[in-house]
UniProtKB/TrEMBL annotation:
<dbReference type="Pfam" id="PF13561">
    <property type="entry name" value="adh_short_C2"/>
</dbReference>
<keyword id="KW-0443">Lipid metabolism</keyword>
<keyword id="KW-0560">Oxidoreductase</keyword>
<dbReference type="GO" id="GO:0016491">
    <property type="term" value="F:oxidoreductase activity"/>
</dbReference>
<comment type="similarity">
    <text>Belongs to the short-chain dehydrogenases/reductases (SDR) family.</text>
</comment>
<keyword id="KW-0520">NAD</keyword>
<protein>
    <submittedName>
        <fullName>Short chain dehydrogenase/reductase family oxidoreductase</fullName>
    </submittedName>
</protein>
<dbReference type="GO" id="GO:0008202">
    <property type="term" value="P:steroid metabolic process"/>
</dbReference>
<dbReference type="InterPro" id="IPR002347">
    <property type="entry name" value="SDR_fam"/>
</dbReference>
<dbReference type="InterPro" id="IPR036291">
    <property type="entry name" value="NAD(P)-bd_dom_sf"/>
</dbReference>
<keyword id="KW-0753">Steroid metabolism</keyword>
Length: 295
């Protein structure tokens, strides 16, 4: 586990999913945390669970610039400094295609997923520029390939990844490191919430996804929030002090290649187009080996 003793962190979207895992991992690693979220009941429960000496909850809608600035300002006010910011809050956003583009949904998605990362970074700089710090931004595997999420979400997440690289260059003079994490299929309530399901039902769906989704990726299991949180903790720690401007895939291998590259039971697209099944391909391979052995 990374060592975050003596560090103060702000985590947005901290009351559930990846953000909640971040709270748990960061506090276990020794950090004190300002947890920002719009879920007041869950946020206050976190403060009760960990105690105000380790965690303070601040209501924060990250699309409201005053609230976003307030959550960054809360860290030095409560704990004396701000060393780590994890711009993590998010949602599935509008799911319309380019042809059917919902322009209001586009603006809302960009504000939630991209503008708040710009602004959260901006509001953190005054608290970090004299001593350095670490900023981590949650992107997605949808930033690297089509087919994982709706187009507006995916473009926003690509923006988050590239912004992190550019901000790392600009802020290096202050010894502020900026990195992006690109999670793969992580079992959280974001999938159910994107379908418009109530929060309680979306939470239950996350558990169903965790139980059933392992076959989707080479590693053989669905990702957990802690998989992302452990990477964030490492990047935020002194052990990661030589790392900035990076884009880190944490995806169980989902992006290594098409399914047939890691699943022997899946058909190659080339063979599939020729009408050759995996079983027939294996028979052809064995026949070729036998013929070679006899020659």
């Amino acid at each position: 586990m990374a060592d975050l003793k003596g560090k103060v962190a702000v985590i947005t979207g901290a009351a559930s999913g990846i953000g909640l895992a971040g709270v748990e991992v960061f506090i276990a690693a020794g950090a004190r945390v300002i947890a920002g979220d719009i879920q007041d009941e869950k946020g206050k429960a976190l403060e009760t669970r960990f105690g105000p000496e380790k965690l303070r909850f601040v209501h924060c809608d990250v699309t409201d610039m005053d609230q976003l600035k307030a959550v960054m300002d809360a860290a030095p006010a409560a704990f004396g400094s701000l060393d780590i910011v994890w711009n993590n809050a998010g949602h599935g956003g509008t799911n319309t295609s380019v042809e059917e583009l919902d322009l209001d949904g586009y603006d809302q998605t960009m504000n939630l997923l991209l503008k708040q990362v710009f602004a959260g970074t901006k509001f953190a700089i005054p608290h970090m520029k004299d001593k350095g710090g670490a900023i981590i931004n949650t992107s997605s595997i949808s930033a690297v390939s089509a087919g994982y999420a709706p187009i507006t979400y995916s473009v926003a997440k690509k923006g988050v990844a590239h912004f992190s690289k550019l901000a790392a260059a600009e802020l290096s003079k202050y010894k502020i490191r900026v990195n992006a994490i690109l999670p793969g299929f992580i079992a959280t309530s974001i999938f159910g919430a994107s379908l418009g399901l109530p929060r309680e039902v979306a939470d239950q769906m996350a558990e169903m996804l965790y139980q059933a989704g392992g076959k989707m990726q080479p590693i053989g299991r669905v990702g957990k929030g802690t998989d992302i949180a452990e990477m964030a903790a490492f990047l935020a720690s002194d052990a990661g002090e030589f790392i900035t401007g990076g884009e880190f895939l944490v995806d169980g291998g989902m992006t290594v290649g098409p399914r047939h590259s890691w699943d022997a039971t899946a058909a190659s697209p080339v063979l599939e187009s020729l009408g050759i099944s995996p079983e027939q391909a294996e028979q052809m391979r064995l026949a070729q080996q036998a013929a070679a052995a006899q020659s």
